[in-house]
Amino acid sequence: MGILSIRKCAAILMAVCLVGVAASVGAQTFPAKNKAITLIVGFSAGGSSDAGARILAGGMEKVLGTKVEVLNKPGASGQLGYTMVAQAKPDGYTIGLASLPGVMVSIMDPDRKAAYKKDDFQPIALQVLDAGVIAVKADSPYKTIKDLLDDAKARPKKITMSTTGLQTGDHFSILQLQQLTGTQFAIVHFDGAGTAMTALLGKKINAYVGNVGDVLSQLKSGDIRVLGVMDTEESPFLPGVKTFESQGINLLGGSWRGYLAPAGTPKEIVDKLSAAMKTALETEEVKAAMDKLGLHIRYMDAKDYTKLWDSYGSMVKELIPLSKQ
Length: 325
Known about the structure:
Blueprint: H1 3-28, E1 37-41, H2 48-64, E2 68-72, H3 79-86, E3 94-100, H4 102-108, E4 121-137, H5 145-154, E5 160-163, H6 169-181, E6 186-189, H7 193-201, E7 208-211, H8 212-220, E8 224-230, E9 254-262, H9 267-281, H10 284-292, E10 296-300, H11 302-323
Parallel strand pairs: 1-2, 1-3, 5-6
Antiparallel strand pairs: 3-9, 4-7, 4-8, 4-9, 4-10
Helix pairs in contact: 2-9, 2-10, 6-11
């Protein structure tokens, strides 16, 4: 090897080392004083996803000592926001809200034509599980989930059940329930929780599928009965309501809301963000605000949240073809 080649290799090695040193220093000093972190929410302001993100952002500001600014970018069921996160600079100053299974559906369904893939993201932490529920009107003949399933088996595709939209978490929960129990429901898609609940109260549908946070006011007023919670533990907001698991049905579902960074974000920065989220979620102020919204805090660090992504990916891949039938 000639002298010029040796010098060229040395220069490249030095450049690589300098980049590594710069990245390490950047991670150590993150976040820089007076440099805001942008938290992208791919949904409209005012919903429970947005509200939970804003509560967390306020808590993180106190932990990190810098502004955490929520930026709403609704469109294509969150895809606009996810695209912005995937294409952002991986320096920790742009992160985004992610809702499972929605983000995974957009990645795995080729018809969605997402401009990103799973490997374009680095999971940071899980904030909340807004567990799935199945509810009926208070005067419904279905007193238990067994009553509902028995009727569905006797009358395939006759029992109407709502979703908040095609390929939403609610939709996938129904598909899972059908697989687990051998039932077939008449699935009715609505454009949101409000219209689906109105249909239930007006006796236009037999059963409502949504999240815990969507049913609290109607349950409190006595208008509905919740037949089960799609979680491994009972919801603190629905005392006395059994999980599906305790009723012999291994149905887990709902809206798992966490946060992502662009792929390539240094691990030290991801860990700092994850730790800041954990600390914020443990404060009485944040816990009280989340409780008021009926949002169940379920923190996972980056490692465990990544495992959740992987497991959800397997489920979504299997159910996507069924979601189009």
